[in-house]
Amino acid sequence: MKKIIKLYILILVSLYFVGCSSSIDTSGFTGEQKLDYAKKLYIEEDYFDALQEFNAIVLEYPGSAIVDDALYYLAMTRFQRSEYILAAFEFSKLIKNMSASEFVPISQFMLAECYYELSPNYTLEQKYTKKAIEEYQAFIDFFPSNNKVKEVEAKIVELNDKLARKELHSAQIYETLGYDDAALYYYSNLIEVYHETQYAPQAMLSKINLLEDREKNQEALAEANKFISRYPNSQLIDQVKKIKASLENKFSNIDK
Fold first, then answer.
1. 108 Cβ contact partners less than 8 Å away, ≥ 6 residues apart
2. Is 214 helix (H, G, I), strand (E, B) or coil?
3. What 3 state SS string does 99-134 have?
């Protein structure tokens, strides 16, 4: 009975490994046939085996016409496996070493996508967010007529909003802790660098309130006038106008 059970387990294990392995012996294939086979694995989402095949092609056929195809799909396979750092490395290598390749535009786009995927929550370090913006901008600069430009522009807006939110979050923390100078620094930086984002009006209103609280009324009034000129359609405009009127009334009483 024990022998039968052992034999049964052995058969199941063998069938498992046969079923899991979709790779075949490609030693007799031409380079093009190997590439076609690797692409087939990629399409079938067999990313583990596809990765091995594309890697082998890149190593076996340096300088060949099929290498840029293999390198691109190698990078894409890394991307599909959520290996974004490794994928970025492969896309960068293609862009740098194969500048004449037809895959350069899409590789530049995907390079930015790698960093987009790595961009964390706004409360954390934003180096990957900044890198994504840099690579998206490079895509626009080098391929301004590409049909992905509108998508890229939208993602740059999204990422700049995240950076602005990070600045606003930092400013609010410092203000809560009573570090007014640090808070004003972050509010001012947001207003200057990310003035087109959705968080800029809130940052400017917070700066105005903080300046008024510190009795820096002249500066507060200047910021209020700047707000009204810059963001006339903001939902916060009525609050700013009230603050402006209050400040002007203070100055009027002083003059009397």
1. 91, 95, 135, 138, 139, 142, 143
2. coil
3. CCCCCHHHHHHHHHHHHHHHCCCCCCCCHHHHHHHH
List the one residue out of 177, 214, 206 whose CA is nearest residue 190: 206
Q: Judge whether 220 and 228 are in contact, CB under 8 Å.
A: no
Residues 6+ apart with CB under 8 A from 105: 139, 142, 143, 146
Instruction: Give the Cα separation of 245 and 248 in Å (integer).
Output: 5
Contacts of 36 (CB under 8 A, 6+ apart): none
Letter for the amino acid at 216?
K
Report the sign of the C-alpha dihedral through residues 145, 148, 150, 154, in that order.
Answer: negative
Contact 219, 253 (CB under 8 A): no
Tokens of 144: 């301004």
Which two three-digit tokens encode residue 31?
A: 């380079």
Q: Tell me: the pLDDT tens digits for 192-237? A: 999 999 999 999 999 999 999 999 999 999 999 999 999 999 999 9
Q: Cβ distance 126 to 120 under 8 Å?
A: yes
